[in-house]
Design a protein that fits this description.
Chain A is α/β, with parallel strands linked by helices and 389 residues long. Chain A has 13 helices and 16 strands. Chain A folds into 2 domains: 5-202, 3-Layer(aba) Sandwich (Rossmann fold), CATH 3.40.50.970; 268-379, Rossmann fold. The N and C termini of chain A lie far apart (47 Å). Chain B has a single domain (53-157, 190-287), classed as 3-Layer(aba) Sandwich (Rossmann fold), CATH 3.40.50. Chain B has 10 helices and 7 strands. In chain B, β5 (202-206), α8 (211-227) and β6 (231-236) form a beta-alpha-beta unit. In chain B, α4 (101-115) packs parallel to α6 and α5 packs across α6 (137-145). Classes of the chains: A alpha/beta (389), B alpha/beta (288). Chain A binds chain B through residues 39-40, 42, 66-67, 69, 71-73, 75-77, 79-89, 91, 105-106, 109, 113, 216-229, 232, and chain B through 1-2, 5-7, 20, 23, 29, 49, 71-74, 76, 83-84, 87-88, 90-97, 99-100, 103-112, 114-116, 121, 138-139, 141-142, 146.
Chain lengths: 389, 288
């Protein structure tokens, strides 16, 4: 293990030199963890997440992390993450599909407990029937938990989002967890080019006293510390505190937006802003949307892309603005329920122009041709069904 | 930091609540309090909303008077009756989700060990039979298998008291409770043997009839966890409401159960035994 020197977070994220590597999404996530000065990582096996946590285990064995263990199950893993973060440590875990759902009670309580942890979500089908293929329906379950949800398109995003998430989640005016989601297999097991910061540089350690709520470590006053369960004080206190606390969690979620601008270049990326038809997509679907824009260009059609990087906070204002003049909006997704289409429809006034789909699920791939069909349909172009090259 | 964090900054004494000032001046922080001094010092827990005659409230009171290092102790609880008092004590308390205590304690203790390798930071879980042996069973057992260095205390009232009196795995066989309308169909779970098998280095079982013995057991469980590994105390803390025990008969009931199935039991590894013998020897030397 090379000696790592602590560098300023802004320098590491925005200015540090980068080296290009051809690696998998799982490797990209572990490489980000390696540079994040993480204290504790807690793992529980599930396909396809396991690769990430194997690699994180390896870097712990090499000395990059201070502690690591395989937990009894996801509920135990996510609860232990909460304990470690309350104790002042910087912590990381990752999970997938059914594992996310098993850990969800703990995960959904992190924002309220003010736990600035980073969680990798390498999406897969939620049973039943059994499948282990990529399908991102599980992200829908995170959308109302208060957690910040980022959705990575490719290996580069996985690296950038993961590293930046440690910085953003610990900001005093944020201080809630971040889920970095990406499609299992399509991204985790496939290789792509990733420009990475130097291996011998890492983020400054977590300062648990730079916080809106104190760590539970018997080091700072007052002696009476209880951040939770106001129900035992009185019912009135319970209503009041819970209400105020929830408002604060969601306000924190929104306050993270300025850091998403600073470190990730904003919550959306727009290709061809003057387009007539837009494909709005997140994660892997954005990569296919990008291809659809290229196909359309070859055919002389005016099609653009809005890639949504941040699902929570959801960039309503930004999306509304980009889509204001669009004739049609196509939302391809890797799930049956169309959670992104619902978000987009709720964000814009003239939402009858939103075409929810194409949708693939159960782990199917998303051929660009399916998106092209919707583009033709929206432009009133009649085509014989054939493969576009 | 320990004591520093309870001390009031100079000039602020008159602005702090009386309760807090008393705690700093007359509380157990930084002192070696004997449980027999109860009533002569400001206790860590005073007000609580537990039922009149609740023996669990009594146990919790004795527990706080027994802490070897209250200024560097963190208590973790879960849904259930005990947390009603635990959350109001002058010791940091974590209330997570139901059944998660031993997982949270694992993460917390590891974080504290990383950040304060040369300091004593005691972590103690106090949860009920439901929290530890039913819903939190896997996490309780695995924290022991992993040899996590904290203390687990089960305040066993043999029922889900807080949710209205349902059967738990620790209810005795045959007892009729809610969700067991025909009586419980299987035996009370043998938590003590499970703890021994799972790797606890110190295991005790008691009915809280003797405060001095409770204090000694709590101190031993915390000290052994600090140095060696997981420790476990199984305490009978009756629910006088759901088991219809008249308030004035609560102690009598505990004595009866002590004779039946809650006789004082203490087991420890040879290593822990030697450790306590050494402490006793040193005490004798100081006396001499």
């Amino acid at each position: 293990m090379p000696e790592q020197k602590v560098v300023d977070a802004d320098y590491l994220l925005l200015e540090a030199p980068r080296e290009r590597k051809f690696i998998t999404g799982a490797q990209a996530m572990a490489e980000a963890v390696k540079r994040a000065n993480v204290d504790v990582a807690i793992a529980y096996p599930i396909t396809p997440q396991s690769e990430v946590m194997h690699l994180v285990g390896d870097i712990w064995a090499q000395g990059y992390l201070k502690d690591y263990y395989r937990a009894e199950e996801e509920y135990g893993a996510m609860s232990a993450i909460a304990g470690a973060v309350r104790g002042g440590a910087r912590a990381f875990s990752a999970t997938s599909g059914p594992g996310l759902l098993r850990g969800l009670e703990a995960i959904a309580s992190w924002p309220g407990h003010r736990i600035p942890a980073v969680l990798g979500v390498l999406t897969r089908v939620v049973n039943a029937p059994l499948s282990i293929q990529p399908d991102n329906v599980e992200i829908a379950y995170l959308l109302h938990s208060g957690i910040i949800v980022l959705h990575a398109e490719n290996q580069q995003d996985v690296f950038d989002f993961t590293l930046a998430s440690f910085v953003i989640s610990e900001m005093v005016d944020v201080y809630i967890p971040i889920a970095v989601c990406t499609e299992g297999f399509f991204v985790t097991h496939a290789k792509g080019y990733v420009n990475m910061t130097p291996e011998d540089m890492k983020l400054p350690p977590r300062d648990p006293y730079k916080a809106p709520v104190p760590p539970t470590d018997c080091e700072i006053p007052p002696a009476r510390i209880q951040r939770d369960a106001p129900v035992q004080k009185s019912n009135f206190m319970s209503y009041l505190i819970h209400a105020v606390w929830q408002q604060e969690v969601w306000a924190s979620n929104i306050r993270s937006m300025k850091y998403i601008y600073k470190y990730l270049g904003g919550p959306i990326e727009v290709v061809n802003p003057d387009a007539e038809v837009f494909v709005v997509a997140s994660g892997c679907a954005a990569a296919q949307g990008r291809e659809a824009v290229r196909y359309a260009q070859l055919e002389g059609l005016n099609v653009g892309l809005v890639k949504v990087k941040s699902i929570r906070p959801f960039p309503e204002k930004e999306i509304r603005q980009v889509l204001s003049k669009a004739k049609a909006v196509i939302v391809p997704e890797h799930n049956i329920i169309g959670w992104l289409a619902k978000e987009v429809k709720a964000a814009i006034p003239d939402n009858d122009k939103v075409i929810g789909g194409p949708r693939v699920y159960g782990g199917m791939t998303l051929p660009v041709e399916l998106i092209m069909e919707k583009i033709y349909e929206s432009l009133g172009i009649k085509k014989e069904k054939k493969v576009v090259v | 930091m320990g004591l520093e964090y309870v001390r009031i900054s100079p000039g602020f004494e008159k602005y702090m609540p009386k309760d807090y000032v008393d705690l700093v001046q007359f509380g157990p922080f930084g002192k070696q309090i004997d449980v027999q001094q109860l009533g002569q010092f400001k206790e860590l827990v005073e007000e609580h909303p537990m039922c009149a005659g609740c023996f669990m409230a009594y146990f919790v009171r004795i527990f706080y008077a027994s802490l070897p290092n209250p200024e560097d102790t963190i208590v973790i609880g879960t849904a259930g009756c005990a947390r009603l008092a635990l959350s109001q004590a002058a010791v940091p308390f974590i209330y997570g989700n139901y059944g998660d205590t031993n997982a949270v304690a694992s993460g917390l203790k590891r974080a504290l060990s990383i950040r304060f390798p040369d300091k004593v930071k005691d972590v103690v879980v106090i949860a009920g039979d439901g929290g530890l042996i039913d819903i939190g069973f896997g996490m309780t057992m695995h924290s022991w298998f992993r040899r996590e260095k904290f203390t687990t205390i089960m305040v066993d009232n043999e029922v889900y008291g807080n949710t209205g009196g349902q059967e738990s795995g620790m209810s005795p066989k045959g007892v009729q409770l809610k969700m067991a309308p025909k009586g419980k169909q299987f035996d009370k779970i043998n938590a003590v043997e499970l703890a021994k098998t799972a790797g606890c280095v110190y295991v005790a079982k008691l009915a809280p009839t003797n405060p001095k013995r409770i204090a000694k057991t709590v101190k031993r469980a915390i000290l052994a966890a600090r140095h060696f590994g997981p420790t476990f105390i199984h305490a009978y803390t009756s629910c006088n409401i759901e088991y219809s025990i008249p308030t004035e008969k609560v102690l009598e009931d505990a004595r009866k159960r002590e004779k039946q199935d809650f006789g004082f039991y203490e087991w420890m590894t040879d290593e822990v035994k030697e450790f306590f013998e050494e402490i006793e020897r040193q005490k004798e030397e100081v006396k001499a």
